[in-house]
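Backbones bend. Shown next:

***
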Amino acid sequence: MQNFSDRLVRIPELTARWRSGSLSDAAYAALYFFTWQIGMHGPRFASRKVRSDPRPDASSWLADFDRSAGKELERVLVDRIERYHFFGLIPNVSVALSAWLRGEWPLLLTERIPTPQEVLEMQAAGRRPVTVVAGYPRLLRPVLKKANGFAFFVHDLEHAFKFFYDRNIHEGQRKFFGLILEAVRQGLFRSYLGDPVFREKFDYLISDMNTHVIHSLRFLGAILIECSLRREGKAPHETLSSAAGDELAGLLRALSHCWKFPLAAERALLHLVDGRFGEVDAVLLEQAVSRAW
């Protein structure tokens, strides 16, 4: 078997085939996945889910991929992905790749890292990006906080799973990101985004946090409180002044108006920052988000 470096040198060849149109986005992503997985782990790259299946063999699998094309290649890729476990990876990665190949999840392949604002816009439209860093040896070096191109690619697939797997949570996320996008467009967070700590956490919320809508709203409330405390020179455990509390409440009312929330949901939104948030508030906000636009 070829060594690790020899395998990865072939990735630009896959990129050329993709750019020529001979590989679909999903097939290119899956071949990128297998090239890395086999290159890093050799014979241990995969294991059977069912003992009656043949043991995974990297050479024969790669030969199968090379002699297949179009829909037949996608069928072969799905077959291998769904019937085997992959060393060092959680199953969510395989689920995302398979759903992409089957055309079930509208993932967006990109060769660059989208900005948080771009990811927000994609998610509001019901999509998630997957970045493929293919240039050699660039793909071996860190990508943001991830060790290499493959780690960043896997990270994107894990987020795709969190965004799409549960239909109800997916719809809540899509609506939530749409509401945040509208609030950003109206400049409602402008005075807070000048704070670099808030900006970093807000970027995390809109581009790297895929969870239930109530968790996202509570995170938003928490970082708004933290930002207001920093403005007053206070520690995170201290209490906001009345003036700061009123200012924050004004923002939440503006958000409620922007989002066309009913009065009961507006009160629930205010409870995110006054320490009185409870289960009833969570239900009211989830309902309000689900009915938005």
